[in-house]
Amino acid sequence: MVNPAKRSHAYGMLLLLLLLLSPWLRAELAAHVDRQVIDENDVIVLEIRYGGQARGDDFGFDRLEDDFIILNQQRAHQLALIQGRPHAVTSWSLTLQPKRRGALTIPSFSIDGEQTKPIIITVTEPTAQARQEMAQMVFMETDVSSNEVWVQEQLTYRVRLYYSENAVLFGELPPMPRFEEAVVEPMGGASNYMEVRDGQNYLVIERRYALVPQRSGTLEVPPESFVGAVRVSTADGAIRRRNLRLASEGHRIEVRPQPDAWPADAPWLPARNLTLGDAFDPNPPRFRQGEPINRVLTLQAQGLAASSLPELDFGTTPGVRHYSESPVLDEDRRGDRFVATRIQAATLMAQVVDFIDLPEISVLWWDLDSDTIRRAVIPSRRFPVAPSNLPQALPDPDPVNGLARPQAAASPPESPVGEIGTWPALTLIAILLWVGAALYGLWHIRQRRAQPPASTAPPVPNAAAERKALLAACAANDPTKARRALDRWLRACGDHGDTLLQRVPPESRGALRPLLAELDQALYSSAAAKPWNGKALASWVKRHHHSTPPSQPRPAALPELYAPNR
Fold first, then answer.
1. pTM to 2 decimal places
2. At what angle do helices 506-524 and 535-543 cross, to 10 degrees?
3. Cα–Cα distance measured from residue 338 to residue 331, given in angstroms and rounded to the nearest whole number
4. Confidence band (pLDDT; 50, 70, 90) for 450?
5. If one looks up domain 129-256 in CATH, what number appears?
6. DSSP class of residue 64?
């Protein structure tokens, strides 16, 4: 039998426990934190529990952002039995990082008449020892390639995050910076490598950006910040996690305006290693009256955006029509600099059989290496124009009946009496020729019956072999063989356009055009700066799935003439 005193004591303990848990079990609202005193590099966890259904918007958690950064927010739902009846319980867990030192307040929350009390959090300055330990564990740096640049000159901005090789880092690098007075473009993705600082190994996460100032004056680059956590293993084998907040130094960049020596009517173009070249297709060009010749101009420069490259002017040539295409802009990276390319193509058609003079084409640019004005020039060139190989036009039609107007002929003299006239003799000859042609046709039909019909299908060109030869020429960096093999391969694929560009689909011409220009420059230009490399053309051939179209079934032969009934 249970002792009544012990039973009474157990009931008392159960009642006390229910009283302690009553704020959580009833439909009430409660909030508490894990700590109320932290340093500025630490975080707190705020727990909120409500005995009912609710959403985070009902409490206005955004009010916390006045004093804290919400690093994480989680919500959970539970069912609890209160007096034998199920009740829903909603709870939130928020990880908060203080924005500054001092006394910070977590505001009160209220819902359905329930309200929590404000909570005061004291944020202290970390000790010198804790600060030094953290600085040796993880830090962030930023730098710029130059503190003084010309307007529209590209500079490189680097953001690097260092952390000890014995640590595990949590968090993300800051997003790409944005400026109203500068264009910012990422230079690839984040790179990871190891670096030694003061005898200690650090893992480094680095991002690079290209900055192109658009206005002169002072460009302010604000400090970068990183919010995250680091986990390390202590000497005794324990694992410790520390929340952290890092900040880098800012930068001031002086952007110089255009120099006074620059012509006012010329577009400003600061660059390095600017080149201007042209190429023809076919190369060398052989102009004929009324037949098209393709000309491609290529402008390339380092240290500026492709959008800054000026439009190229082909000029006007008497007796020549120009049909320009839309320019192609491209940007590549060479080290810490962008390589901008502008390609402009046009079709030239000579209208006269004579000599034509293509005018000089030049681009004025500012050399950033020497701070001087330079001019890239394509000199004027003279070409002969031969007569066209196209068929001549038919005679002008008769405006009355649409037939070709015959030339007027003199009336034949009348035949003497008793002789055969000219027209009857011609008629007799025509009848004899017609009878002879009919007899020959009947004989030819009998001969065809006696022999099996021969196949008239043309031999199928071996496109695969030509493609293999083209790739071999590219691998050998042989521009002569590559040019010939490219022509044979495209012809083997069934494309017989007048030029190489016309033998590929329109969507592939933009990528092939600069490759042809580079190939022609290596073949025909005396100013080639370096040997031709076939890697880019081989890459295009591998991507360009150009194959011979599948053979169509041959149509059934026509029935023989005068075939006997079967």
1. 0.52
2. 160
3. 6
4. low
5. 2.60.40
6. G
